[in-house]
Structures are given as structure tokens and as C-alpha cells.
Specification:
Length: about 170
């Protein structure tokens, strides 16, 4: 018995065949990529990069082999400020981060154990400043002072640079 298909019933059949063909092509592509990855040397460079092709700081740091970790364990600090003329000084919201070498395990452990000290140092420094002075804050001087205080508390290494990710004053 022969079955004749009407033109209306050919649409889903063509779509079904297309989808099966697409799935088969994807499976072949995944198998070929997996086999290729087994034969590539472990130190080879990527075949292509997603994103900007210009060599930015992140690309140059990766290509130079300089691995750097960023310590953000201090978290976001909410520091009450000394009262101004109105009596209420407001609140400073601050996040502090700094780079450290990833290979120095002892220094990394010291950083993790000193999170409470780092928080206390930053809170002590900023809470002593009145809100009026923070409006015109010299960030470089504040970073240098906090960096000096952090480094005096460390024994196994030193922090080279300090960054303020967030610095907001809320009334």
C-alpha cells in the first residue's frame, strides 16, 4: 500500500530531517574537537580568543606569565563616620583589594588569618575622619597610610599596592 503525502504534511518532515542533520553535525563536531584536544600539547596557545583582540593589561599579564591574585577577603566595610557640624557624620561604604603573589602559600595563609586586623585598621582610620574631610579625601594619601598600617602588621610578606573598589559616603 502506497501512501501519498499531501503538501501540508511535508513541512514537519523537512523540519524533522533538518533537526536530525543539525544534531548529527554537532555530534561530529564535538567528537572531532575532543579527539583534537587529546593530541594537542598541554602548553600550546589557544586557537582563538573571544572578546577584544587588542592586547590589554589582562592579555599582556597572561602572555608574560606573571600570575597575580587579588585579595578581596576584607569584603565591604560600612564605617560610621565622626560627627560633623550637624551631629551625624554618615556612613562610609568601602571595599579594599590588593594583589598578592599566588605562589607564596605562607603569605596567602597569613593574609587570610589577618582579615579581622585589616578590617579593624581600615575602620579605625576612616572612623576618625570627619565627613567633611572625606568629601575632599586624598585617596592616594589614604591608600598610602592604610598600606603602611597593613604592612606593619604583616610578617611573612608585604603588600605592594592597595585599591579601593567602592568608596561611597551615605548620609
Amino acid at each position: 500500500m502506497k501512501r501519498i503525502l499531501s503538501p501540508k504534511s511535508r513541512g514537519p518532515l523537512i523540519l524533522y530531517r533538518f533537526m536530525v542533520l543539525l544534531v548529527l553535525v554537532l555530534i561530529v563536531f564535538l567528537i572531532a574537537g575532543t579527539i583534537y584536544s587529546f593530541f594537542r600539547s598541554p602548553g600550546s596557545s589557544p586557537l582563538f580568543r573571544l572578546g577584544s583582540s587588542g592586547a590589554g593589561q589582562a592579555d599582556s599579564a597572561v602572555s608574560a606569565g606573571d600570575a597575580v591574585n587579588v585579595f578581596t577577603g576584607i569584603g565591604r566595610l560600612r564605617i560610621p563616620l565622626a560627627g560633623g557640624a550637624a551631629g551625624s557624620g554618615g556612613t562610609l561604604i568601602l571595599s579594599i583589594a590588593f594583589p598578592y603573589p599566588p605562589g607564596d602559600r605562607a603569605f596567602t595563609e597569613e593574609l587570610a588569618s589577618r582579615i579581622g586586623d585589616f578590617r579593624a585598621i581600615a575602620i579605625e582610620y576612616f572612623s576618625s575622619l570627619p565627613a567633611e574631610k572625606l568629601v575632599n579625601l586624598d585617596e592616594d594619601a589614604a591608600k598610602a597610610e592604610i598600606l603602611r598600617r597593613y604592612n606593619t602588621s604583616l610578617r611573612l610578606g608585604k603588600i605592594a599596592a592597595l585599591y579601593f573598589n567602592d568608596l561611597m559616603i551615605v548620609d
